[in-house]
Amino acid sequence: MPVGATGISTQQVEEDKLVVSIGPQHPGAGHFRFTITVEGDMIVDVLPDPGYVHRGAEKQTEYRNYTQSIPLLERSSLTDVTNIIGPYSLAAEELMGIEIPPRAQYLRMIMSENQRIISHLYWLGIQAIFLGHSTMFMWPLGDRDLLIDLGEMIGGARITYSYWIPGGVRNDIPGNFKERALKTYDYFEKRLVDYERIFFENPLFLKRTQGVGVLKREEAIRFGVVGPVLRASDVKSDTRLDEPYCLYKDVNFEVPVYKECDTWARCMVHLFEMRQSIRIIRQILEKIPSGSVRVKLSPQQRTRPGEAYARVEASRGAMAFHIISDGGTKPYRTKISVPSFRNLIVLKKLLIGSHVADMPAIYWSLDYWPVEADR
Amino acid sequence: MSIVTGTFRALAAALKQLPKKRMTLRYPETQLEMPGYYTYDPKLGVAKPGYKGRHILWLDKCTGCQLCSIACENISQAIEMVKVNRAQPNNKKSIFPQVDYAKCVFCGFCVDACPFYALGMTDDFNLVAYTKKELVYSPEKLAVPPKVTRPKVKVKFEKDVAFHE
Ligand code: SF4
Ligand code: SF4
Fold it and tell me: Are A203 and B6 inside 8 Å of each other by CB?
């Protein structure tokens, strides 16, 4: 069968069963394929087959110095660029032994939270279109552009900002940022009420998601899932809370936890988190101190020999980098632990025994991003 | 909530949008107002926020030190140093950066590397061309600031409406 198969293979399928291949082109699955075996309307077997967009990001960082890797790493996770650079910068800074000024820490948090909303809105649009709700596809992707505008004001690009770097952030925020950001978030919070009315409280949405794809608490812990999937399974776990990085201990926010453990809960976690992200940014804009935002590094900055491990809460869950350095200008080895890949394992668990029609809802509720998982 | 009220509430939320202004902007008749140039201050060691679009090269300041080209080396190899027929006392070899936009990823790390305030990035993103050759910008071409003739629009917010005007 597909995973690990070399050359042509054949298989015997029982008479009343049918094997369906989904992907790896882009019919919603992303660059990812999974094969399902169906018996009537029920899924009896699932074989996820990741790796179509593997480009060796870990290996490639060994040939680049600490700054040059950033544009490359960003491209692994295009909806979540700030948060994939985050742990990389934190680990590199630990190896370089530099302290980041508080203003830079807060700016990192603003960018990171804004990125979380951008990523969740993308997720929401696709989840809605998978459930056949095209209005809810248009609205989030339209409003997402206003948040991307905010990112553009700070980071100078619409998607790949390269904003977090080892040593701080690239630049300060422009003077009119606070006013524009508050206006945008005021507008966006009103829109979230509209979203609830048309989608999250819509009986069609409830029927398609409640009780579908249940991942019980014990199973979630045993499989080691992270992020919204874990929180929807009644586990209060958030890297921002458990091991605060940047200055997350100075802001107040809540972590959503749902007892339902189903697809509905996973959707609600995303909605809840968007509101909390706005809350965090509002607090930061109130109290952000002035000061420098970047520690100047030499173009070929050396690190101490040793290891560093850093973890942040990306929009899909805990994103971690483990860098080993031999004291040169480039990492000796980099290991990236991405949330998408860690959540993929439950796909098999959730899909077996569910209806074919529930497959899109369950699949996308995991917020699986193939490029990030394959890195 | 019953199915009937839920459905009506969803429909009402959609109907509320009917009289609202259109959110999208009409490109290419109009264009979004951009945040300005991205430049870097080597003395302070921090950049000035702006849009990272096509580069601008201030020829008279460039010393041909190649640091921008070295910075780009492992990113996309987009910068090549080329000879320009131009007598300039601070640039003895008369070499200047030439950028290939078929390769550039607009990260701006070359701007951060320039120690002489010679390189910046403009807010020009209209870089379409018929051939790949046209995407190679020579130093003279990079020195010309971009001109946008189409009217610019801004995002405006009114209570729960966002539109471009
Ligand atoms: S913006 Fe980045 S990719 Fe483009 S020329 Fe400069 S360093 Fe190279
Ligand atoms: S643009 Fe700047 S970095 Fe590049 S060669 Fe000229 S002076 Fe040196």
Answer: yes
Q: Which residue of A has its CA nearest to B45?
A: A296
Helix-helix angle A263-287:A102-130, to 10 degrees: 150
Tell me how many domains chain B contains: 1
pTM of the model: 0.90
ipTM (interface predicted TM): 0.86
Quick one: closest CA in A to B114, which residue?
A: A299
Q: Rounded to the nearest whole angstrom, what is the distance from the C-alpha of residue A295 to the centroid of ligand 2?
A: 22
Q: Is residue A48 part of a domain?
A: no
Residues A361, A130: Cα–Cα separation, whole Å: 6
Number of domains in chain A: 1
Lookup: tokens for B17: 């949008």
In a domain, residue A44? The reply is: no
State both tokens at A151.
């990112």
Distance CA B60, CA B58 (A): 6
Amino acid at B49: P
Q: Which tokens hold the place of A25?
A: 């082109």
Region of A85 on the Ramachandran plot (φ > 0 left; ψ -120 to 50 alpha; else beta): alpha
Q: Which residues pair with residue A334 across a beta bridge?
A: A323
Task: DSSP letter for B37, please.
Answer: B
Given a cut of 80, whether residue A3 has pLDDT beyond it is no
